[in-house]
Amino acid sequence: MTEQGAESQARSRIRPVKERVEDALILRPGVVGVDIAEKQTGGEPTGQLSIVVFVEQKLPAGDVPAEQLVPDEIDGIPTDVQELEIELQPGSMKVLAGDEPLLDPAVYPTMVGGISMGPQRTIYLAPPDVPSPGNYVFSGTLGAMVRDRASGATMALTNFHVACVDTTWSVGDVMVQPSRADDDANDDPFGTLARAQLTDTVDGAVVRLDAGQAWDATVTGIGAVAGRATATVGMAVQKRGRTTEHTFGSVVSTDFTLQVDYGNGIGVRTFRHQLRIAPDTTRSPRFSDRGDSGSVVMDTARNVVGLLFAGSRDGSFTFANPIQMALDALGVDLITGPVVTGSRMVICQPSRIKIFCGGPLISRQVVCVTRAVWCPTRTVITCPPPTRRPICWDQEWPFDPPGPFGPGQGAPSAGDAVAASGVPAGASAAELEAYWAGYLTALEEAVAAEQQGEQA
Fold it and tell me: Mind telling me which Gene3D superfamilies this protein's record contains (predicted)?
């Protein structure tokens, strides 16, 4: 049996015991979470899976009443106690109290995932929820674009505590981008709160876009949403949020039970079957921070696996709802962006990088793309036979139904792409693969060449 298979088998053995005792454990003073994780001795991992009880502050055994001590084992499963401070991750600012340090307070005329958003209204808060009483504005992240299962309306996915904040919310609350914590003078709405859910598995909300509001089924800095997937332990993941922007990590648990204090009249809520994510510290010191709530967590193939809502104060972990639970609770489905199938076409999304035809591309065989390529406009890049240089053009496809390109722009079919590409009719799969092979490399070399030219 492989090491991964042995770990999965061990988790399956521990899981029913953990789920049977977690309610009793999490009610003990100071306990904030229960999970299946590696036991530590002297702060060092032992390689042994155990039921881990997370506490805000670990105390010597002699300072804990006997009835509150965590036993050394439960039904033959070893236990451990580790420290963890958990917090929700919205950004907030007292009105007229000054600026908050930010990384991306930018205005995005087209709604996409990974950007700042928040309620237009202010929320009155008082201690202990905030240092001083007053009217506050909140910010979080627009996670991804979704479609309402009942009406087909286009909506934006985020957290309950980003869009609703407290118990004073109502359907129809106006949302702005960027949030007023990022631009207090912003009075330009992009949509209204449609519904929200705060359950033992989901902290979610959806915002119905205003008529005529431009949108795109991408996460800025990452690319088109390819679909959804189920998170697994060890899975490499990424996210793009309003504060820490594009970060990387890995799923360390899909069994996390935690308590989070929502304050604001809501109080402490318990969540079960949550994702626990550790940052890849070689690429980013934290996976998330305040203001990143509402981000979608994606795998390396751009499939959404979770909806980020909380994290540890020291940045050691981030917590997310499994995405299918969030979608089902809210009655929506992810809208996917253009995904290359059969490597027959490239859909370009807005960015600062320009892709051009000619120059280095003229003498190259330009073929196969397996992911979206970034360029300044929605452009379809097609290639005639390899003996000729590629042709690029901008075109609004004459399809009426709304699609991932935005209102009034439907996606071209695979047949359209093949017809436009100049691929000989009846070509075999091997001939097609050979025809398109090398496309992405040529495009990326073109981008690199232009970037070097701009820097020169």
Answer: Trypsin-like serine proteases (2.40.10.10)
